[in-house]
Design a protein that fits this description.
heterotrimer; A mainly alpha; B mainly alpha; C alpha/beta; A: mainly alpha; two-stranded antiparallel ribbon; 17 helices; 2 strands; flat; disordered N terminus; C: alpha/beta; Rossmann fold; eight-stranded mixed sheet; four-stranded antiparallel sheet; globular
Chain lengths: 390, 319, 331
C-alpha cells in the first residue's frame, strides 16, 4: 500500500506554477517595507545608534575630541552656528569644529559635545533597562505560563522565608541568629533531599503532611506579584527609589528595569498559556521532548515577536523616563550631560536661549518617535492577524 | 456574583497588605537618611538627632516601626516629619488642588479620543486616519516637559497671559470675570498637557478595538440585513468595541493621585504630584508612604470597579 | 426555461483580490442563475470562489482588497452592481437575505435575539411594535425554536449552535425575501443538527415559495436538497446541470473526481480515489484550464486554451472540450 502511494506521487508531476516561495524573513521585510514610517523609524534608530557610539568615543578619555565639560565663561549662551570669539579664548578652548554647531549653554559649554555625550547615556539607559525588564518578564511569564498549574507547598514557603530572613539578618549584622536560621534552613533542605525517595513510599505523619499541602499555584503567586507591582505609581516609585539611592546612571537603569517588567510577564504568560494548548506542543510532548526544549525550541520562537515589539516600545519609554528624571534633577550626576539635564538647565533661559530647550527636546522627540514607529511597524509585520485588518 | 465580589475584595486587601510591606521596606532599607536624623547634618546636634529618632520611632526594630506607622495612618495621626502637620490633611488640600486638573484632563481625553479613534477606524487608511495616527505617535513620543515649554512659549508670546501657578500673584481685588478668566488660563495648559498622552494612547486603542470589531462576522450579518452604515458602525460595532472601555472607567481612578510630578513642578501647581516630589526631596517618609498607600488603594479600587462594570455590561459574563 | 421564470442571473462575474503585487483571481468569469422556487447548489472545494460569488450578489465583498472587475448581476430587472449603496441596502435583507457559515460568530453577542431578528423588519417594513413582536415569535416558531416568547430576550451565547443557526435563518426569513443565500450553513454543526437544518430549509421553501442558493462543499447535502447544481473549481463554473445529470452523468473530470472520492458502501474495502495535487493558489493559477495539472484526461491544448462550455442538452453543460470530443467520436 505504501509502495503504491509513493509510485503515485512519483508519476505525478505538478506542472502548475507554484507561488514563489518566501521565507518568513523575506515576507517580514516585504510587509515591513510597505510601512514607510517604520522604515524611517529604523533609519533614525540606526543613525542614533551610530551617533551614540561615536559620542562615546569622541567625548570620553582624558583629551576628548569634543569636550563636553569645558567651561568658557566668556562664551556663554552663544546661539548655534556662531563663531567663537578667538581673542578671548585660549587655544585649548577653541571648539573642535571652529564654531558652535549647537551653540553654548550658560557656562559656555559646547552643546553639541554635550548632546553627543547624552546620546550614549540615553542609548544605554534604554537598552539596559529594557534588557533587564525583558529578562525578568520572560522568566516570570514563562514560568507562570508553563509551570503555572504546579503548586507551591507550605514547606517551600517556610524555607524560602527562613532563607530570606536569615540572609537579611546576616546582612544587617545580626550574624548569630541569621546564621542559625540559614543553617536550620540548609539542614531542612538536605533532610528533604535525603528523604525524598523514602517519603514517597511511606505514609506521611500528620505534620509532614501539613507541610506538603498545596498552598498556592505558581501562576497565582506570580500574577499576584505582578498585581502588587502594578499598584505602585510607576514614575513616582522610580523617582522615590532614585532619590533615595546614590545618584548614578546604573541605579537609574536598574530601577527602570525592575519597575517595568510586568507588561512583558503578562503577555508572555498569556502567549504561553495559549501555545501550551496548541497541538504542536502536545505533539512535542507526545514525542517525549523535555520541558526546557519545548519551552525554548518550540514555544519561545512563537512568543518572541510580541516581546520584541514591546521591548522596542519599552526602550522609547525608558528614554523618556530617564529624560524626565534628569529634568527633575535626579539621575546622572553633573558635570556629565544627558539630554534631560541639558533641557533642565536651559529652561531658565527659555526666552534668551531657546536652543537650549529645543535642541534636546526635539532630539528626544525624534529618537523616541523613531523607536515607537519602528516598534509599531514590527508589530504590524510580525502579527499575521493584524495583517488582514489594515 | 456575590462570592465573586467577596473573593475579589479579599484578594485586593491581601495585595494591599503586601504593597504596604514592600513600600515600607523600599523606603527604610535603602541607604540614605532623612535630613532630620542624618548624623552628618551640621544643623543638628547629636542630641537633637537622637530626639528625632525617638520621636519617629526610628530607634525601634523595623517591624515595630511598620506597625506604628500604619497604626498612625489608620487613626489619622500620621504627621509629616518636615513640618509636623497632619499628613492626611495635607494630602486632602493638595488633592483638592489637583482635582480640577484631573477632571478637565480626563474630560478632554475621553471626549477627544473616542471620536478620533472611531473615525480613524471607519475611514481607515484615509487621510484622517493617517494624520491622526502620526499625530498620536508624535504626542506619545514628545517628552511632557519639553512640550510644556513649547506651549508656554507659544501662549505667553501669543496671548500675553501668565500661565505659571494657579492664579496670578497679587490679583486680589480684580473683577470676578477677570479672576475667572485668569483661573481658566492658568488651568488650560496643565490640563491639556495632562490629557495629551492620554488622548494619543486612548484614541489608538479605540481605533484598534473598532478595527477588530469591524472585522467580525456579525458586522457582515448586520450589513447583509440591509442596515445603513451608520447603524452598522455606531450600533453593532461600537457597542462591542466599547466593552473594554467601560472597564477603563475604573482605571482612571489612580490618575487622581498619580497626577503629574513633572507638569505640576513646571507650572508650580500646588497639587499632589508636586507635594510628592517635595516630600521625596525632603525624604519626608510619612508623606511618601501615605501617597504610595493611597494610590495603591485607588489602583485596587479602580480594578475592582472595572471588574464589576464588566460584569454588568457584558451579557456573556454571568456569575 | 422561460426567461420570466428567472429570479437572479449572474453573468461573467469577475472578482479579484489585490494584495501587494499579487492579484488573486478568486472569481474569474462565473455565470449562474436561480429560478423562482428553486434550490440551486454551488459545490466546490474551499477557496474555489463560491463564497465570494455569493457575497458579491449582496455587494458585501470588502473593498479593498476585493474588487468586482466585470460582470452583471441581474435581479428584478436591474443590475445590482450598478446600484448605489443606498439602493443596495433596500435589497439586502429585504429581497435577498443571507445565512452565514458560523452561527457562533455571526450573531452580535451584545444584542438579544429579538433585537437582531426584528432589526431588519424595522428597517425595511413599516410595522408597529406589537405586531413586530408577534412576527418575531412566529418566525422563531417557524424555524423550530421551542418557547419563542422567552427566547426573544436571550442573548446568542445562551443558545446552542443549532439553535443559533435557526435564529440566523429566522433573521433571513424576517422580511419574506425572494432569495435566501445560504453559505455553508451546516458546516459548523453536528451531523444530526445538520440534517434538521436541511429539513428546515426544505420545509421553508415549500411553505414560502422562495428560492434558495445553497453553497456547500458537501456532495451529500447537494444530493439531498438541490434542484440544480453548479460545480465550481478555481473561480470558474466547471459543470452545471440538474442533480440527476450531475450525479449520474458527470461530464467534467473534476466532477467525476469529486464523485469518485465519495465514500460509499459499495466501494468498501477498496482504496478511496483522491484527486491528485491540490487546489491552485488563486494568485498563481495555471494557464489554460485551471484543472489541467490534476486532470487524468489532459491533452496538450489544455495548458494553453481556456476551455469552452460544451452543451450536452437539457441544461447540462460542462467546461471540458476534451471529454466532449471523445463523446462525439464514440457516438
Amino acid at each position: 500500500m505504501n509502495l503504491n502511494e509513493t509510485t503515485v506521487t512519483k508519476d505525478f508531476h505538478l506542472e502548475e506554477p507554484l507561488a514563489p516561495k518566501q521565507t518568513r524573513l523575506e515576507e517580514f521585510w516585504l510587509l515591513f517595507g510597505q510601512n514607510r514610517l517604520a522604515i524611517m523609524g529604523l533609519l533614525i534608530f540606526i543613525l542614533f545608534f551610530c551617533c551614540a557610539i561615536a559620542g562615546l568615543f569622541l567625548t570620553s578619555g582624558s583629551k576628548p575630541i569634543f569636550d563636553p565639560s569645558l567651561i568658557r565663561l566668556e562664551e556663554k549662551l552663544r546661539p548655534p552656528f556662531s563663531k567663537p570669539n578667538l581673542d578671548l579664548l585660549e587655544p585649548n578652548q577653541v571648539p573642535t569644529l571652529n564654531f558652535y554647531l549647537m551653540g553654548t549653554d550658560d557656562l559656555g559649554r559646547d552643546v553639541f559635545a554635550r548632546m553627543l555625550q547624552g546620546a550614549w547615556v540615553s542609548l544605554t539607559v534604554g537598552f539596559v533597562a529594557v534588557g533587564i525588564s525583558v529578562l525578568i518578564g520572560i522568566f516570570m511569564g514563562g514560568i507562570a505560563g508553563y509551570f503555572g498549574q504546579h503548586y507551591i507547598k507550605i514547606d517551600h514557603i517556610l524555607w524560602t522565608l527562613f532563607l530570606v530572613s536569615g540572609t537579611g539578618l546576616v546582612l544587617l549584622d545580626v550574624t548569630l541568629s541569621g546564621a542559625a536560621l540559614l543553617l536550620l534552613c540548609l539542614a531542612y533542605i538536605v533532610y528533604v533531599v535525603l528523604t525524598r525517595h523514602r517519603s514517597r513510599k511511606k505514609a506521611h505523619s500528620s505534620w509532614r503532611a501539613m507541610l506538603h499541602t498545596n498552598a498556592v499555584s505558581v501562576d497565582t503567586l506570580i500574577m499576584r506579584i505582578v498585581d502588587i507591582m502594578l499598584c505602585f505609581p510607576s514614575f513616582f516609585l522610580i523617582l522615590t527609589v532614585v532619590a533615595i539611592l546614590p545618584a548614578s546612571i546604573y541605579n537609574i537603569m536598574i530601577v527602570i528595569g525592575l519597575t517595568s517588567w510586568m507588561g512583558t510577564t503578562r503577555f508572555v504568560r498569556a502567549e504561553f498559556l495559549s501555545l501550551r494548548e496548541q497541538d504542536f506542543v502536545a505533539a512535542a510532548k507526545a514525542l517525549g521532548i523535555g520541558n526546557f526544549r519545548i519551552i525554548f525550541r518550540h514555544m519561545m520562537p512563537n512568543a518572541v515577536a510580541p516581546v520584541l515589539v514591546s521591548a522596542t516600545i519599552g526602550i522609547a519609554s525608558a528614554i523618556l523616563t530617564e529624560a524626565g528624571l534628569s529634568f527633575l534633577g535626579f539621575g546622572v550626576p553633573p558635570p556629565n550631560a544627558t539630554w534631560g539635564n541639558i533641557l533642565s538647565g536651559g529652561k531658565n533661559f527659555i526666552f534668551d536661549a531657546p536652543w537650549l530647550t529645543f535642541i534636546p527636546g526635539i532630539t528626544i522627540l525624534i529618537v523616541v518617535l523613531s523607536f515607537n514607529l519602528f516598534g509599531e511597524g514590527l508589530r504590524d509585520a510580525l502579527n499575521p492577524k493584524l495583517r488582514e485588518r489594515h | 456574583m456575590l462570592s465573586f465580589i467577596g473573593r475579589s475584595f479579599v484578594q485586593k486587601i491581601i495585595t494591599l497588605f503586601f504593597v504596604s510591606i514592600v513600600s515600607f521596606l523600599i523606603i527604610h532599607l535603602a541607604p540614605g537618611k532623612p535630613s532630620q536624623v542624618d548624623p552628618m547634618n551640621p544643623k543638628f546636634t547629636p542630641e537633637v538627632v537622637e530626639r528625632f529618632r525617638k520621636e519617629f520611632h526610628l530607634d525601634k526594630p523595623l517591624y515595630v516601626q511598620y506597625v506604628y506607622f500604619y497604626q498612625d495612618l489608620f487613626t489619622g495621626k500620621t504627621v509629616s516629619w518636615k513640618d509636623n502637620q497632619s499628613v492626611l490633611k495635607k494630602i486632602w488640600e493638595r488633592f483638592l488642588n489637583s482635582l480640577p486638573l484631573f477632571i478637565v484632563g480626563t474630560l478632554l481625553t475621553w471626549t477627544l479620543s473616542f471620536p478620533v479613534g472611531i473615525r480613524s477606524a471607519i475611514f481607515r487608511k484615509g487621510i484622517f486616519d493617517r494624520t491622526a495616527t502620526f499625530l498620536s505617535y508624535l504626542l506619545i513620543s514628545i517628552p511632557g516637559f519639553f512640550f510644556a515649554y513649547v506651549l508656554i512659549i507659544f501662549v505667553v508670546t501669543r496671548f500675553h497671559v501668565p500661565v505659571i501657578g494657579m492664579v496670578t500673584f497679587g490679583i486680589g481685588d480684580a473683577s470676578i470675570p477677570y479672576i475667572l478668566m485668569d483661573r481658566i488660563w492658568h488651568m488650560l495648559l496643565p490640563s491639556v498637557l495632562v490629557a495629551t498622552g492620554g488622548i494619543a494612547v486612548l484614541s489608538r486603542y479605540v481605533r484598534s478595538q473598532m478595527l477588530e470589531v469591524e472585522g467580525q462576522d456579525y458586522i457582515r450579518t448586520a450589513r447583509a440585513k440591509g442596515l445603513p452604515p451608520e447603524q452598522v458602525h455606531y450600533k453593532h460595532a461600537l457597542r462591542n468595541a466599547l466593552l473594554p472601555f467601560v472597564t477603563m472607567f475604573g482605571l482612571i481612578l489612580p490618575g487622581l493621585i498619580g497626577g503629574s510630578v513633572i507638569i505640576e513642578s513646571i507650572f508650580s501647581w500646588p497639587g499632589m504630584g508636586r507635594m510628592a516630589y517635595e516630600a521625596i526631596l525632603a525624604r519626608d517618609y510619612p508623606i511618601i508612604l501615605t501617597v504610595n498607600f493611597v494610590s495603591a488603594v485607588l489602583v485596587l479600587a479602580g480594578t475592582f470597579i472595572s471588574d464589576l462594570l464588566y460584569l454588568i455590561v457584558d451579557p456573556r459574563i454571568r456569575l | 426555461m422561460a426567461d420570466d421564470n428567472r429570479l437572479i442571473s449572474v453573468q461573467g462575474l469577475k472578482v479579484y483580490f489585490r494584495s501587494g503585487h499579487a492579484c488573486a483571481r478568486a472569481v474569474d468569469g462565473v455565470s449562474f442563475e436561480v429560478r423562482k422556487k428553486e434550490t440551486v447548489c454551488i459545490v466546490g472545494e474551499s477557496g474555489c470562489g463560491k463564497t465570494v460569488s455569493a457575497l458579491s450578489i449582496l455587494g458585501l465583498v470588502t473593498t479593498p482588497p476585493g474588487e468586482i472587475i466585470d460582470g452583471r448581476i441581474v435581479f428584478a430587472g436591474q443590475n445590482l452592481l450598478e446600484l448605489s449603496e443606498k439602493e443596495m441596502q433596500k435589497i439586502r435583507g429585504n429581497h435577498i437575505a443571507m445565512v452565514f457559515q458560523e452561527p457562533l460568530t455571526s450573531l452580535n453577542p451584545v444584542f438579544t435575539i429579538g433585537d437582531q431578528i426584528s432589526e431588519a423588519v424595522r428597517i425595511h417594513k413599516k410595522i408597529g411594535a406589537e405586531s413586530l413582536r408577534e412576527k418575531c415569535i412566529r418566525l422563531l416558531k417557524d424555524v423550530g425554536i421551542p418557547a419563542p416568547e422567552q427566547r426573544l430576550e436571550d442573548y446568542p451565547h445562551q443558545l446552542s449552535g443549532g439553535q443559533r443557526q435557526r435564529v440566523m435563518i429566522a433573521m433571513a426569513l424576517a422580511c419574506d425575501p425572494d432569495l435566501i443565500i445560504a453559505d455553508e450553513p451546516t458546516t459548523a454543526l453536528d451531523v444530526t443538527v445538520q440534517a434538521q437544518i436541511l429539513e428546515l430549509f426544505g420545509a421553508i421553501q415549500k411553505k414560502q415559495s422562495m428560492s434558495i442558493l445553497y453553497i456547500t462543499h458537501d456532495l451529500g447535502v447537494v444530493a439531498a436538497i438541490a434542484d440544480r447544481v453548479y460545480v465550481m473549481y478555481a473561480g470558474m463554473i466547471a459543470e452545471q446541470g440538474n442533480t440527476e445529470q450531475i450525479f449520474r452523468n458527470a461530464r467534467h473530470p473534476y466532477t467525476q473526481g469529486l464523485l469518485a472520492s465519495l465514500p460509499s458502501l459499495s466501494k468498501r474495502g477498496k482504496r478511496l480515489y483522491s484527486i491528485p495535487g491540490s487546489v491552485p493558489n488563486p494568485a498563481y493559477k495555471p494557464a489554460g484550464c485551471p484543472f489541467h495539472p490534476r486532470c487524468p484526461h489532459k491533452a496538450p491544448s489544455c495548458s494553453t486554451e481556456y476551455p469552452k462550455m460544451c452543451d450536452y442538452g437539457q441544461g447540462h453543460l460542462a467546461r471540458c472540450p476534451i471529454l466532449f470530443q471523445d463523446k462525439g467520436h464514440h457516438t
